[in-house]
## 1
Amino acid sequence: MAKISKKLKAVNAKVDKTKLYSISEALKLAKETSITKFDSTVEIAFNLNVDPRHADQQIRGAIVMPGGTGKTQKVLVLTKTKVKEAEDAKADFVGAEDLIQKIAKENWFDFDVIVATPEMMAELGKIGKVLGPKGLMPNPKTGTVTMDVAKALDEIKKGKVEYRTDKEGNVHSILGKVSFNEENLMKNYSAILDVIKKAKPAAVKGTYIKNISISTTMGPGIKVLIEN
């Protein structure tokens, strides 16, 4: 069993596991219980009353966080038709089959997001088994399969994050960094909460959002009061 450090024990003691904190209290506590020497990421997790085995209950999409994410994303654009547009919009890498082959043969992953124009999807499908588990496969639902490459790049660079339900019906997302002021973290919380609420499947009856918790990298989970 892993040994818990004194520092982690001390911050764990600050969190009442039986309490539901207001989002304002939870964010303050998340900042106080961050124990890393680097600027930790603040994360949010929603536990939803959905059954992801059914296609109509799979929640997936993307949102541009109004307060930013504090994370710099390297973007690979795969296109034959929008090369100049991608270069002008400051994509980190631009290519077509050549870069798909580089991923397949050299295990090249010096990027965080792939944006592709539709004509590249047949080729990309050939390495879907490699990209899928890493969450890198472009998808029209998240705006990463598009002819509007400039818009996609602009949104990603501004702080676009993708979200999707896992097998247990949980949705995880970045809220920002510990160094963010509370106002920007609150903006991001309100934005992602609104998106999740609007994505409620018609088949879901009764309570939809069962639990919300926030945490920082290596920090304790803090349960959030769900306000209507």
## 2
Amino acid sequence: MDVSTTESSAEQMQVYRLTKSKYAGDISGTGAAINPGRWNRKGSPVLYTGINPEIALLETIVHLPPMLSPVLDMLTLEIPDDSTLTLQDSDLPANWSDYPAPTILSEIGQRWIENGKQLALQVPSCIIKTSSILVLNCQHPKYREVKIVERTPFPLDPRLIKQTIR
């Protein structure tokens, strides 16, 4: 697998996370360690974020049960911009965007976590492949530099989650 590492100065970049308000202050990765996602295994604390608020929204609403409208907050996080491993669509197995997620993805993510070289893993969104999410390794030494720079209530338009149960 050919991957590239983004190297830059010690500048900061902003990423976004849409989450239930009651959990918005917790960026420890505990939720993902308990309920693993596409890119991590159970027991591995990571934080799933998006490169913009729109992908953070889409990545959240695909997981909401029909007709449920939780109270949400949008977080803007500042992360170091010099420690990101970027995987492109072409770096991943052909079935990487399937649902449910193929096990190979959590294995790739687990190797990245255990390698411990980069704070962030940037991967294509399986919802919109032209956009990206960043998975943050909460155990990486640079994670202490991650800061919540803004937290705002996010009223969810009910039309986004109105679904017919079949």
## 3
Amino acid sequence: MLVTVVVPPAPIIALDDAKAHLRVDHADEDALIAGLVEVATAWLDGPDGWLGRSLGEQVLETDFSVNLDPDDRVYPCPPATGLLDETPDPESGTVTVRWRAGYPVVDGRSTVPAPIRHAILLMVGHLYGSRDAVTTTAAQPAELPLGVQALLAPYRIWG
């Protein structure tokens, strides 16, 4: 099922939070850090993301068969938070549906579960500290036992 992002997701990690995680107290690398947050979030979020779910609030669109009862629709990329629009296309036998998805922002803060937010911060820390595609150190890299995948696994939509 093809899912299109109509309105991109709202940010879920504030620059100040990322800087605090990295222990950066200057503005010299704000653009770099903001870009790393965007990269880490994009790897997880939305129709193309590893999690298979929507993180930041966004608007998605897909087509369903006109023969499918609206109550039987399964909206991809949960959480779905509200139906916005339905446009039937009798020629193709489909209805194009737009809906709001993602975790809401409450009092200016994202409600994305803490393990997902922390996994994004771990990814940002890794990208910030490893700015080359290849490592040349003698130490063998190892995944953190309770690292990114362990934090994210309960939230991933499988299949």
## 4
Amino acid sequence: MASVYRINKGVSKPIVFKGLKAQYIAYLAVGLVFLLVLFAALYISGLSLFVVLPLILSLGSGLFFTVFRLSHRFGEHGLGKYFAKRGIPRFIRFSSRRVFIALKGGRDERG
């Protein structure tokens, strides 16, 4: 008797939710939780709802626009690569591989 197994074809694909890719979903979730806590703290401290609500709504819309812009600009791994590249000291950075090719004597790897 032959068994039928279903193959999940999306195993190596990144998680995407409404246009947000990978870690940006977590960034948005953490930001929204922070805004909820900020709203509660400001409201409990006695600030008027007419002050707190526009502040939280403007910060929330800024959060949404920023996270979506970062997601579309950098993609799944691009933000990490961007910060990694910025962390390299200037005197170590190379714009081309010509320096390393010259060290090998300009020969191909095969011969």
